Amino acid sequence: MVFEKLKSSIEAIISVSEQKVPRTFEQICLDKLKEIGISTASEWCAAMGHMHRSSLAKVIRRILAKNPEKLKVYYNITPRQYEVVY
Q1: What DSSP character marks residue 3?
Q2: What pTM was estimated for this model as a whole?
Q3: Are 66 and 25 in contact (CB under 8 A)?
Q4: What are phi and psi of 5, to 5 degrees?
Q5: 27 strand-pairing partners
Q6: 24-84 domain in CATH 2.60.120?
Q7: Separation of first and last alpha carbons in the chain
Q8: HSE-up of 22 (CA within 13 Å, CB side)?
Q9: What is the CA radius of gyration of the chain?
Q10: In angstroms, rounded to a whole number, what is the distance separating the alpha carbons of residues 23 and 12?
């Protein structure tokens, strides 16, 4: 009886630990940018499936505000280019 409860609790812990951690939209965007490499906002948006280049503007601002170490921005090039750093 005790062993059955212990076995079921161990199985529950293993199943919880094997579940994937949900990703935020920012993480999904960073993964896509890492996949395509250095690119402009319009190229990045096109790779994400969006039509307009400014559709990721708010996401880029959130990434730069929360995790600036993950995104490198080349300001000296027009248009700006973005690169994932992690």
Answers
A1: H
A2: 0.72
A3: no
A4: -65, -40
A5: none
A6: no
A7: 48
A8: 2
A9: 20
A10: 22
Single-letter amino acid code for the residue at 19: Q
DSSP for 22-43 reads PPPHHHHHHHHHHHH-SEEHHH
Query: Contact, 23 vs 11, CB < 8 A?
Result: no
pLDDT digit string, tens, across residues 11-40:
656 655 566 777 899 999 999 999 999 999
Residue 45 buriedness (CB in 10 A; 0-12 / 13-18 / 19+): buried
Q: What strands lie across the sheet with 81-84, from one edge to the other?
A: 39-40, 81-84, 71-74
Q: pLDDT digits over 45-65, tens only?
A: 999 998 887 889 999 999 999
d(CA 44, CA 28): 12
Cα angle, residue 20 at apex, residues 5 and 45 outer, rounded to 5°: 165
